[in-house]
Structure formats: C-alpha cells, structure tokens
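anyone else get weird line breaks when pasting these?? whatever heres mine. first is seq + tokens for prot A
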Amino acid sequence: MRLLSGLNELLFPPRCLGCGSLNEGLCHQCLLDWKISYLQTRVSAISVFSSILYTKTASNILLAAKENGIRSADDLLVEAMHHSLVCAIATCDIPPILIPIPSAPSAIRRRGRNFLLDIADRAGALEDLPIHNLLRHNRKVQDQSLLDARARFENLSGALNVVSHAGRGRDVILVDDLVTTGATLSEANRVLKIAGFAVVGAITACVALPLR
C-alpha cells in the first residue's frame, strides 16, 4: 500500500487548488486571495452575505468542487458558506430554514451529485438548521456564465417553481455558491414570496463585486 501511495504521489503530486502549482493545500498567494471576510450586498431588497471575493483563485476552487468533486475544495466552500451563514442568522429573530438554489438536472447528472445541496447541507448542519430543497427548474435555461447581466435576468425569469410548501411560515435564507448579478437569487426570492415564504436573506460563499 505504501508503494502504491508513493507511486501515486509521483504520478499525481498535490497541487494548489487555486493556481495549480505544486503545493500541499493552497499556496501562499492563493491563501491571500481566498481570505474569508464579511461581505454584504443587496439583491431584490434582501441582504446577501458572502465571505470570499470572486477572483481567479475563487473561480478555480469553485470549479474544483462543482465539476471535479474534490473534497478539499468542498471543505473550503463549506467553511466560507458557514461564515456567511453565521453572519446571516445573527440578523434573524428566529432560526431560519435554508433553501438552496436548484441545479439543472443535466448538471446533477454530469456531476453525479447535487453539489450545492451537499455544500448547503454541511454548512447548515454546523448550525443545526434544516435544508428544504423546494425549488426546481420548470424549463431549460442557458448557462448563466455565457450571458451578460440583462440576459441573465431574462434567462431566469419565470424559470423556477416551488414544488413543496414544507416549512412555509418560517423565515427563509436562500443559499447559492456565487452571486454575480443577483438574477438567480431574485427569481428564487420572487417565486418563494408568491408561494407564501418569508425570504429574509441569502448567503453565498463568493461574491463578484460590484454586482454586474
């Protein structure tokens, strides 16, 4: 087993998740980029709490978690998400429920898991908060990363619906991995309010400032 482990390290030496350089964990520069901070903005009149500025380093770590399922990248996102959650629940009078933004069914099949639900569940468990997976896409949407701000809002308009009313009457915090324009959070906020939920805020691991 030791021989196989040593051979694996020779063939696949550990690399920094942020830049790909040979390194155990994050290299010094990427550690500086991946700095947990208190970051707050507003989307559709709700406060959005985030922890990491969206940089190239953050983009690479998100991709490592979402598309490659790298556990250490997941751990970094859970830590950032938990920090955002602690900031958000400090503004709540009663413990909220967490509702993650849904992934497209094709993305879940490709990744072999519901990435955001996994991250939200781990972060929520640290505060003993329930996750209610209530949102679904009701039609196919384009990849948001390929669209400008206006097109993102048009792409998401009317694209989500609520599949259950479990937890209605409780305060809700939306959960996403990244906020760039706020289009996704805005649509989720809209449909949940129509369904009778009180959305009091949102959390993300990363935020692109200024929102664009």
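and prot B, same format (seq, then tokens)
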Amino acid sequence: MLKLENICYDVDADRPDRAKRILSDVSLEFPDRSLTVITGHNGSGKSTLVKLIMGIDKPTSGRILFNGADVTGDSVTDRALKGFTIAFQQPVRFKGITVRNLLDAACRRKCSTGDACNFLYSVGLCAKDYIDRPVDDTLSGGELKRIELATALAKGGEVFLLDEPEAGIDLWSFDELVGVFDKLRDKTVIIVSHQSKILQAADRIVVLNSAAQPVSGPRDEILPGLTDVGAPYCRRGYAVKE
C-alpha cells in the first residue's frame, strides 16, 4: 500500500517572499494491485505529485508511506531499489547510449535478445529496427516514449509511475497502450492522464484541483462527473479528452 499523508509542496519554500503552494494537505491511498489515474486541470500539481512519490522532489510537509514504512526522506535511488519505477512526460535522450544499453541498465544485467524483443514488442516496436539505435535526436517523440515504457517494463518493480504515457504517441493505438497497462495489473500503477480511454481503464481516479481538496474514488463513481463540465469538481472547465 502506498499512502500520502497531508502532503504540502511549495516552490521556493526557502524564500517566503516568493514561495508558491502547489499542493496543499493532500492525503491519498493507492491500493496494491490497482491502476489509479490522476487527472485535473493544468497547474493542479499532477506531475509534481508523481515526482514527490518518486523522491525527485521532497514535500514541504507531510509523509509518504510504502508498506507501512516512512519513505519521505528516501532518495530516488532508495525508492528505485524498493521497487519504484517512473516514466516521464518528456523522456530523456542519451548521446552514445543505445536502446540495448538502456534495457541492460533497467534489467541490471545483460538483457537477452529474446527479452529485449519482448519488451520492445510490448510497446509496438520491432527489436530488429531499434535494439542498436542510439537514444538521441534521431528518434521521434513517440519512438522515445515507447522506448522509455519498454525500459520501465524491463526494470519491473512494485510501483509504476507513468506521467502522460500517451504524449507523443500518435501512430500507436491507445488500445495497445492500455494493453501494456493490463500487463501491470498485479502492481500499483499510477498514471497521470486526461485521455478518456486511459481513464476508462482505471480502477480508481484521482481529480486534483489546486483550489480544493482532491476527489478520489472508484472509476464508475468519478468518471461520469469528469465528462460533465458542470460537475462540482470540474468548475474550472476541465473535461476529459477523447
């Protein structure tokens, strides 16, 4: 079980004259073996929340608990060793590193050709065409995103954090993308997205709103409100994208 208790996050917290609160008193639970989608209007703190869970940023106050242990002060490396895996909204490019190198690093061993093929095939890529390609500017945004998802699958873990995994993927069908999520149903999966097909695949939905407390619950309870712009937690004009 992953649990957030009274999480607050301020930008420039060490400079009171410039401090800006991004998240205020957020308390959420992410059950084991579940897929939770975090959604909300721009600036509501969705990506920030994912970075806090991964340990990239530290909360101004509050606690993050994983399986009952306080991991608030743990580094990114500490959390990765505990089974946390992240895929960013904008994947990083690496000069001089090939796709095979990335998969080897994710597996923490030399990844067999068969395993590499399976990871790449899972995200709609032909290993023959990509295994030896450098992870640089020769790759499109969509190709880079799929390679990052393949790397996340190769690393494995217990908690998967995916920030807008559909970003840049215009030729690869959403059905295939959702199929990747289905393979992770035995994990704790947290996805930042506002795409309707991804929201429909969720077990639970969290709606962040910088002006109010988050609304969370089972998909069937939350999703109807998201598609109705007049719903109480959509007063900023937020609606899902088809």
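btw re prot B: The longest strand covers residues 20-30. The chain is about 30% helix and 30% strand.
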